Amino acid sequence: MNKQLIYGLLLSVVMVIAPHVIHLPLWVSALSACLLAWPAYLAARGEPLPSHWLLIAISIAATGGILIEYHSLFGREAGVTLLIVLSTLKLMELKTKRDAMALIYLCCFIIITNFLYSQSLVTGLYMLACLLIISQVWVQLHMYPGPFKTRLKIACTLLLQAIPLTVILFVLFPRLPGPLWGLPQDAFSRSGLDDMMSPGSLGRLALSDAVAFRVAYPGPPPRRDQMYWRGPVLWNFDGRTWTQGKSVQIFSAQLSDTTQPISYNVTLEADNKIWLFALDMPDSLSIPYRRMNDAQLLNPEPVTTRLRYQARSYLSYHANLLESAAQLQRALQLPAGFNPKSRRLAANWRANGSDSRIISSALGFFNRQNFHYTLDAPPLGLNGIDDFLFTTRAGFCEHYASGFVFLMRAAGIPARVVTGYQGGEYNAFGNYYIVRQSDAHAWAEVWLQDRGWLRIDPTAAIAPERVEQNLSAALPDNTVLPFMARNPPQWLRELSLNWDAISYQWNSFVIGYDNERQFAFMNRLGLASVRWQALSMMTGIALIIGLFALYMLRHLISLKQDKTQAAWLKFCRKLARSGLPRLPYEGPQAYAIRVCIARPDLAVSIKTIANRYIALRYGIPQPENTQRDFLQLVAQFRPSAN
Amino acid sequence: MNLNNVIRQVESVILGKPQQIRFALTCLLARGHLLIEDLPGVGKTTLAQVLARTLGLQFSRIQFTSDLLPADILGVSVYERAKTDTTTGQFIFHAGPIFAQMLLADEVNRATPKAQSALLEAMEEHQVTIEGTTRQLPSPFFVIATQNPSCQIGTFPLPESQLDRFLMRIQMGYPDSEAERGLLSGVDRREIIAKLTPQMDDAELRSLQQRTRQVFVSAALLDYVQAILRYTRESSRYTHGLSPRAGLTLLSAARGWAMLDGRDAVLPEDVQMILPGVVSHRLQSDYAKSDSAARELIEAIPIP
Does B302 reach chain A within 8 Å, measured CB to CB? Predict the structure, then answer.
C-alpha cells in the first residue's frame, strides 16, 4: 500500500464523515480524529500497522460505547456512528487491495447516510465532491498511479458517463411512499406562526430569515396589498394573549359574491404545524385538507416534509354572511374588568355612530394619535391595551391588531384576529415569491351585517409602507432586522435570490420528486403500471449501456483503422455476403488465394484488390493515389451471388 | 533468380520436403540457426550437405557424443617443435570443425552440457575465444543442429536458454509415399550430392542476408506481432509468454520468409508461416508441444 494511496483514502474518509461531526457524540468525534491521525502518522513514518488484536479491542470498546450511548446498534444515529467508527478503524487494516476497495465502498455508503440528515443542494454538491475524490482514489488503486490532476480527470469522466444512468434511475426507480429512516433535520424550520399571539411574538418571528413558503403565480400576481396569506385565526383574548379557543362548528364556512379568482402554487416548508397558507379568501386546495368555519385550512397532520399544493382563492368575497349567533357571541367576548380607558373610548364611539363610523374612527384614532410602528415595543402593564393605546403608542402588527379587535369588541362589533403572512419578496430569477418568517403579520376581521367578515388591517393605517412595500420600509432605519429583511446591497440581494431560485428548483424537482409525482409523471408517459415502469427502467439502462459500449467499440476500432483497413473490411464483408467470409486470422494473401479458387470469375479483381491492399497496408508507403484507386476498386467491387 | 535455383536444386535431392527446405533457407537468410528434431535417418544430414553444396559453403560436421570436449569443437593450440635449430618451437592453433561456413552439429543432445555450450556460445557471438585470442568465425556462419527426441536413452536435452539460440526448430518427418518411392528408386543421394554445382557464392549470400534485414515491416504488421506476443503472455495456456527477443526473432524469420517469397514487405501470412518453427521451442507448456498447438495459436489471433 503506497503512501499516496493511504493519504487519498484518509482524505476520502475525512471528507465523508466531516458533515456528521455536528451530530456525533463528542467522544466519537474525538475517537475518530485519533483513529484518523494514527494511520496518517504511521504512513508518514513508514511504520507497520498495529496488530489485529489491538484493532479488535478498540472496535469492541467503541461498539460498547455506542451501545451505551444509544441503547442500540440499529437506527439512524447508532448505525451511522458505528459505520463511522468502523470505517476509521478499517484505515488501519489496509494491507491488500481488497481492504482498500472495501474502504472505498464504505465511503460511498457513508455518503448515503449523510442524506439522512440533510438533503439540501449544498449537501448534494458537497457529496458530489466527495464522490469525485473517492473515484479518484479508486482510479489510483486500480490502474493509474500518475499525477492527481490526471486521476481527477479520469474520475470526472467516469462520473459524467454515469449521468444518463443516474437520470434514468432517478426518474424511474420506484419511490417509497415515506422517508426511509426518519427525516432530515433540515426538513424543520425553526419557527413559524402558532395558535396563539401575545405582544412580541410576531416581532420575534420578524427576526427570522427562514423561508415560510414560496408561491408561484401562473397568471398575473395580485396587488401587493392583496397578498394576505391566511393562517391561524384567533378568537379568545385573556387580556394579554390571543388564542384560538374552541370553535363552535355549526355552519361551515360560506363564501358568496366571489370575484377575482386567482390560482397559484405554494411550496410550503416543513414547519411541523398544521396550517396550510392560502390567499384571503381561500376556496380550495389540490391536496386533502380540512376547512374550518373561520376559513383556516388545516393539514390532517403536522407538515413534516416540504409540501406542494395548488390553491385557488377569491380576492373579493363575502364571507359567512349568515354567521351563527354563537360564533358572533365568541367574537364579542372580552375579559371583564381590564382596560377601562379603551372600553370608555369604544363606548363613546358606539354612542354616536354606526358600525362603519366606528371602524373609521378607530382607524383614524391610530392614524392621528402619533402611533409608531416598531419592533421594540415597550413592555405593557396589566391593562395592556390601555397602556398601548394611550401611553406607549408604539408596537408591531400584533399590537395594532390586538388593540383594534379589542376596541371593536368593546364597541359591540364582532371581531377576531387573523395571523399569517403579508407580502413576500419577488424572485425574478425563478419567477416566484418568497414568503419569509419575517413577513409574518397579524390583522383584524370584523363582521358586519351586510358584508360578512371584512378584513381590516390597522397596521396599514399607521405604516402603509408595511403593506405596500415591505417590513424594512415601514420600520425606522435603526431597527435590527434579519439580513434579508433589511435592504442588502443589490449584488448580494441578487446572489441570494439566485441561490434561492436554484434551491427552489432543487427542492421542487429533485427532493420533491416523490412517489406521487413519479406516479403522475409515469401516467403522463403512459407507463402507469409498475411493470411498465420497471421495464422502461431496464430498457433505458440497457439502451444507455449498449449505446455506450457501441460508442467505445467504434472508438476502439477507429483508433486502429485507417481508410485502407476500413475499405478492406468492406471488401471482406461484400465477399462474406456472397458466402465467402474471411476468417479473422486469415491474411489478405491467403484469403485472396482461397477466394480466387472458389470464385474464378472474380479472380482478377480480387487479386488486384488484395495486392493493392497488401501494398498499402504492409508495403513500403505508397503514393496517395494508390489508396484512392484502392478505395475506388473496393467501392466498385460487386460479387454477384452464384 | 538465384534463390529459386537454390530451392530447385535442393528439392531435387531432398524429395517431398519443400517446407523444411524453405525453413532452412529462411534461417540462413535471417542469419539464424536451425534445429532439426527428428529420428535418425530422415535426411537431416543430407539436407545440411545439400544446402552447403548448393550455396557453395564450406561444410563441416561434428558428431556429438557424450565424451566430446569443447576443444574438439573449437580447436586447440598444439606445440610444434622447431624444425631447424635456429628457430624455437611454438604453439600453432589448429582450428576445430567450428571454423566452417556451414556446420552440421549432429545429435547435439548426445553431448554433455559443457560441449553443447561451447557450440552455442560460438553460434551467438559468431566468434570464439581460445587461449585469450578472439577468432572470428567465417561468414556466413550457419549451424544446423540435429537432435534426437529427448525421450531416447543417453541424451542431455538442451535447456530453454540454449534452445533460444536457434531461430527455428523444425521436424523433418517421414516423406510421403511418392517422395519415398522416388528416394528408393533413385540414385544414391551421396552420388547426387557429389555432382551438385554451387548456385551462389559467399558474397551473393551475404548480400541476400543484408537485403533480408531491409525487408519492410509496416506498423500494421507490428500490431499483429504484438497481438501474438500479448496473447501468449495473457493466455493461461502457456507457463510463460514469448519474450521480447522472441518477438525480434519472429520478425527476422518473417523477413527471411518474405525474402524467400520474393517480396520486399512482410505479410501476416509470413508470420503465420514461420510461427510454429519459431515459437514451439520458446513457449513453455505441455500444450505448446502438441502439433496442433501452433495452428491454434494462429487461429486464436485475428489479424488487426
Answer: yes
